[in-house]
Every structure is written in C-alpha cells, then in structure tokens.
C-alpha cells in the first residue's frame, strides 16, 4: 500500500483547509478596505459567495473520507460514548454560534457591522467560535479515531488559533482603547475571566430566541446523521480528489 493510498486524502484535506483559511481569514483582513470601496452589503455578499461553497466542499470531503488513513482507536462500542459525543457536540454549537451574529446581516438584508461585546458567551470566552471548534474536533476525533480525522482537526484548530490572534488584532486596529478594555475584562480560556472575578455570568443573557435556533440545529444534525453514508457516496461520485489533482 502506497503513501497515496493511505494518506493521500489527508494531503488534499490540508490543501482544502489552507484555501478555506485564506478565503475566510483573508476576507476578514480585507473587509475594512473592501467595504470602503464597494460598500458593506456588496462585500458581505462576495464574502459569503466565496466562504459558503468552500465550507460545503470542506465538510463534504471530510464526511466522505473521515475513515481514511490509519485507525488509531475504535471506541464506538464503548458504553455511554454516543451520549457523550452528542453532549459535547451540542456544547460546541453553543460556542460556535457567535454572540455577535445577526442572521439578517449574512444575506446583507441589514447592513453588516463590526461590533464588540462583553456579554453572553463572551463572558465565558472572548473567542467562542474557536473554543466551539476545538470541542467539536475533540468529540469527532474521539468517535472516529483515524489519522485523516486527526489531520483535519489539527488543521481546523490551527486555523482558529490563528483567527484568535487575527481577530484581536483587527478589533484593536478598529476600536483601539475600547477593545483593549474588553480584552482586560474577558479571557480566551473558557471561564477564566469568571473564575478570577473579571466577569460574572448573567443567565438571562443566554435566554434568547437564538438559543432555540441552536437547539433546533442540533436536533436537525442528529436526525441527518443517518444520511451521512448516502451523502458521502454522492460526494465521492463527484470525485473531488481527481478534480483537485487536475487543478494542481
């Protein structure tokens, strides 16, 4: 068995992660300059048209190749593992859903704006999406246990660690002292600011309609997991690896 047979998909996943990071973080870096030229709504639409397809390809490729490579462990028959994975996944979605999210700004129905907050999930961690991604990676790597999944998770975590630095830098440049004050009152490590007294959790801030949307999303993904095999076969029939090889 050759390296390509065993780890070829891991190599392509690294490339896909790199291109996604360039589109996503690069788009964020260009936001201020681009909005000054074409406007906030136009830039949001361009950004969404680039980011969403790249994310769909990334997710599809992961689902189709998640069991590729070397199997390091297989705990899938362990008692209580399935509820643990779903609890961790549900928690990860609570973090992945940004505190500053406004759904109407995604399609630019409302004018997209950059805001800073120190409430809600930001009291727990200043970078909830990064923490949510790390929790998601831990849960799925524990369930699958393959080298391909390990490579994917390490790539995703690396991107989000960069995004932590990049996000703080962009907000510092835009808001200056105002964001520095937010940084002093919050923490990257979950609950650290709460434990050391800089923050106090306000339960009412978490009782929002958006949280019901997260719950519905978790239920939907739980239900849709039974179609993963069908989706993987459809994606593989597209033969993305061959297309990427031709492009390269």
Characterise this structure:
α1 runs antiparallel to α2 (40-65) and α4 runs antiparallel to α5. The model has no long low-confidence stretch (mean pLDDT 84). The protein is an all-alpha fold and 248 residues long. Helix content is 69%, strand content 0%. The longest helix has 36 residues, at 3-38.
Query: In terms of structural class, how would the helical and strand content be classed?
Result: mainly alpha
- Based on Cα principal axes, name the global outline: globular
Question: What is the number of helical segments per DSSP (H or I, 4+ residues)?
Answer: 10
Strand content: under 5%
Low-confidence stretches: none
Mean pLDDT: 84
Rg over CA atoms: 19 Å
**Beta-strand segment tally:** 0
In percent, how helical is the residue content? 55-70%
Largest sheet: none
**Would you list the SSEs in sequence order as H and E?**
HHHHHHHHHH
- How far from one another are the termini? 23 Å
Topology readout:
Layout: H1 3-38, H2 40-65, H3 81-96, H4 128-144, H5 147-175, H6 177-185, H7 192-195, H8 209-224, H9 228-238, H10 240-247
Summarize the structure.
By secondary structure, this protein is mainly α. It has helices at about 5-40, 40-65, 80-95, 130-145, 145-175, 175-185, 190-195, 210-225, 230-240, 240-245.
């Amino acid at each position: 068995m050759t390296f390509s047979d065993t780890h070829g998909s891991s190599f392509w996943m690294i490339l896909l992660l790199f291109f996604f990071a360039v589109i996503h973080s690069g788009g964020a870096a260009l936001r201020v300059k681009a909005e000054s030229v074409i406007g906030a709504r136009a830039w949001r639409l361009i950004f969404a048209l680039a980011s969403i397809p790249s994310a769909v390809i990334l997710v599809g490729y992961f689902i189709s190749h998640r069991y590729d490579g070397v199997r390091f462990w297989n705990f899938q028959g362990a008692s209580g593992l399935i509820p643990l994975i779903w609890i961790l996944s549900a928690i990860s979605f609570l973090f992945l859903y940004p505190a500053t999210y406004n759904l109407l700004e995604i399609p630019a129905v409302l004018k997209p704006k950059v805001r800073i907050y120190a409430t809600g999930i930001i009291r727990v961690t200043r970078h909830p999406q990064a923490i949510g991604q790390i929790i998601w990676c831990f849960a799925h790597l524990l369930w699958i246990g393959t080298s391909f999944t390990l490579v994917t998770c390490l790539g995703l975590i690396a991107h989000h660690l960069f995004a932590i630095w990049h996000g703080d830098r962009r907000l510092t440049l835009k808001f200056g002292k105002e964001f520095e004050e937010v940084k002093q009152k919050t923490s990257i490590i979950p609950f650290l600011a709460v434990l050391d007294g800089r923050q106090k959790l306000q339960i009412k801030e978490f009782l929002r309609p958006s949280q019901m949307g997260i719950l519905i999303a978790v239920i939907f993904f739980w239900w849709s997991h039974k179609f993963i095999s069908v989706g993987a076969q459809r994606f593989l029939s597209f033969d993305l690896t061959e297309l990427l090889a031709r492009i390269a």
